[in-house]
Amino acid sequence: MATEQLKYETLDVNEIYEIRKYSDRLVIETETSNQNSSFRKLFNYISGSNEKNQEIKMTAPVTQIEKNGNMTMQFYLPSEFDESNVPNPSNSEVKIL
After folding, report:
1. Which residues in 1-97 belong to E strands, given as ranges?
2. Average pLDDT over residues 32-61
3. Has residue 26 got a pLDDT over 90?
4. What global pTM score does this model have?
5. Which CATH class is domain 25-96?
């Protein structure tokens, strides 16, 4: 089964990078100084560590940005989720945006 990919528009391309604008989508995120810890917290959420004990398919891409001096990792949620049906995280360090 294929991983759901976010829709995007390519804004600019050069030899080194591509700038993309992604469609609006809910994300889960966590902020930490440890990349492995961030991934594990988000992976636990999609593996059922949420209020509905619901497993959620992973999508691509996974993003990581510097925020407040720490690294913030984000998983985009599948398109079937919106604010009315997304399960709340069990871990208070995981946020839905």
Report:
1. 4-5, 8-13, 18-22, 27-32, 59-60, 62-67, 70-76, 95-96
2. 93
3. yes
4. 0.84
5. alpha beta
Let me know how many helices (H) and strands (E) the chain has, helices first. 1, 8
Q: Is 45:56 a contact under the CB 8 Å cutoff? A: yes
* CA neighbours closer than 13 Å in the CB half-sphere of residue 51: 8
Task: Return the ∠ at Cα 40 (arms to 83 and 81), rounded to 5°.
Answer: 15
Query: Could you give the CA distance from residue 22 to residue 8 in angstroms, rounded to a whole number?
Result: 4
Segments making up each domain of the chain, as ranges: 25-96
The answer to whether 89 and 43 have CB atoms below 8 angstroms apart is no
Give the per-residue pLDDT at 88: 98
When pLDDT is cut at 50, 70 and 90, the band that residue 85 belongs to is very high
